[in-house]
Automatic annotation (TrEMBL):
Native source organism of the sequence: Streptomyces cacaoi
Protein's UniProt name: Cyclic nucleotide-binding domain-containing protein
PROSITE patterns: CNMP_BINDING_3 (PS50042)
InterPro entries cross-referenced by the UniProt entry: cNMP-bd_dom (IPR000595), cNMP-bd_dom_sf (IPR018490), RmlC-like_jellyroll (IPR014710)
Domain Cyclic nucleotide-binding: 7-76
Entry-linked Pfam families: cNMP_binding
Superkingdom as given in the UniProt entry: Bacteria
Length: 156
């Protein structure tokens, strides 16, 4: 799990402060939607307190929760890659206090400071890898008992 210090820990103190300066404090109430699947991914958050669920729309069913983001973790990474569209939705599970970042400002900073950009991109990539592994395990838990075993594992 990458926390704020883990996510930004590889940055030099001055780089870390430049990035943090782009953030602003926000709050979400329990049950509040943070972003919607298919929406424009133009920001991201580092959670200070609380937790959020990540869900996906399953046609003909209610949305399925596939992961949870907790305090200290990065919420949202689709802002980093074109076409900048959320592939999941997110909802506050409990009251959340977070540092919110404007994606364009952070992408611009990363472009201007190539060293910061490379280190930060690697840190976000590590989060993506962890999140994909957790999602894979969650989907196996959700659908594994109902499908042929080789079909489920082969599809993931």
């Amino acid at each position: 799990m990458h926390t704020m210090s883990g996510l930004l820990g590889e940055l030099e103190p001055e780089q870390r402060e430049r990035l943090r300066a782009l953030g602003s404090e926000v709050h979400f109430q329990a049950g509040e939607r943070i972003f919607e699947e298919g929406g424009r991914a133009d920001r991201f958050w580092i959670l200070h307190t609380g937790s959020a669920s990540l869900d996906m729309h399953v046609p003909g069913h209610r949305d399925v929760v596939i992961d949870h983001v907790r305090h200290g973790e990065l919420l949202g990474w689709h802002w980093m890659f074109r076409p900048y569209v959320w592939t999941l939705g997110a909802q506050a599970e409990s009251p959340v206090r977070a540092l919110e970042f404007d994606a364009l400002s952070v992408r611009t900073l990363c472009e201007e400071d190539k060293e910061l950009g490379l280190v930060f991109t690697h840190a976000v990539a590590a989060v993506i890898g962890e999140r994909l592994q957790r999602t894979r395990m969650r989907l196996i838990d959700l659908f594994g008992p109902y499908a042929p075993r080789d079909h489920v594992l082969g599809a993931l």
